[in-house]
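Quick check before the chapter quiz. The format below is the same one you will see on the exam, so make sure you can read both the input and the output lines.
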Amino acid sequence: MSSEDIAEGAILRGIMAYQEAHPYLRVEFCLVDVRTPHPGQKLREHLAVVRPNGVLASLFWHEPRHDFLCPGRPLVNVGDYHQTSFPTVMVDQAYIGEHAAEHLMKLELPNYAFISLTGRGYGVRMRWRGFRNRLARAGHTCLLFDSDYPKTAQQLDEEDIKEWVERLPKPIGIHAVYLSLALRVSWACRSLGVRIPEDVSLIGGQDFPMVAEAWTPTISSLSVNRAVVGYKAMHLLDRLLHDGKKPPTTPTLVRDIVVMPRQSSDVLATRDPAVARVRKIIVEQANHPMVIKELLEHTSFSFSRRTLERRFERQMGHSLHDEIVAARMAIAERLLRQTLLRPTEVARQTGYASYRVFATAFKKQHAGLTATSFRRQHMATVPAGLALHNPHK
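Here is the expected output.
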């Protein structure tokens, strides 16, 4: 399954969430693979049969003429492969690039690099621009794989990536546009004996936990809520159909993005194996009740609780208790942003036996903001009626 398949599946969830909330709309699907010859013609043939009032499409091919594809009917684009004159709803790729850069800069690395695949389109160029510009504002330069190896995906082989990784100054932080590409960089490092994250700290693109957590080290990535793209695109198409307004001339950008840190960029923990082991257990068990004494029971280290707490605080700059709370709050924030679970259920799924204790901890971590207020603030990015899958079930 490709990252494009995952992204399109999330967009479809958003489309159907909007349709369920607006039952007067009927949705038909035409799935055209990127490898389909003449995809515009294929879609046009399907539209001639269905005869829709409006069209929502991912324009992964070069822009068709509107009068050729759907004359007299509004079309909303949800792809970022090409810069287009059609009204578009897309993830803010420059914003993702900035987030990736900020995550790597927190590691205080001396070198940074970016890898994509030449010719992969407008969205990738925006990602590179956001990553490069954020580093530049902090006084850093950035190496670019594509300028050294100007090849297409079909021409690129593993030796190219290995040669590039070997020549890079180290230690270095690398952002790979796709999660699959981050894995290829990880494999290149392993074959070269380059350590991750000590020599290369790595963060990939769209998060897919089943893939990101299947390897050692696990791969840090960026979780992008693409279901919001589908929902907002349907909302825009609905407006164009029923309000008669002119389409917007600039893209509607979705910024619902969360960094998912994992071992590939966890430089601090690698300096002490006991700290690394305990942090891994905390992340794995964050949705269950947890006490510090139990952490020692899950490790093979024969030292006291007080020794563990001192080593942890010296290494990480905060306490073990703070680490547990932060792991739980990360789960709570995702559930509040991406589901419509009641706050009491969110508390239960973040390891709190008491909602009162959860509510107190949440307000302390969020400058007095309640869980309900936090969710309400994010309704600007997660529209009302959009209930996504629970990422912890």
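If your answer matched, good. Strands lie at 55-57, 75-77, 89-91, 111-115, 143-144, 172-176, 200-206, 220-224, 252-254, 257-260.
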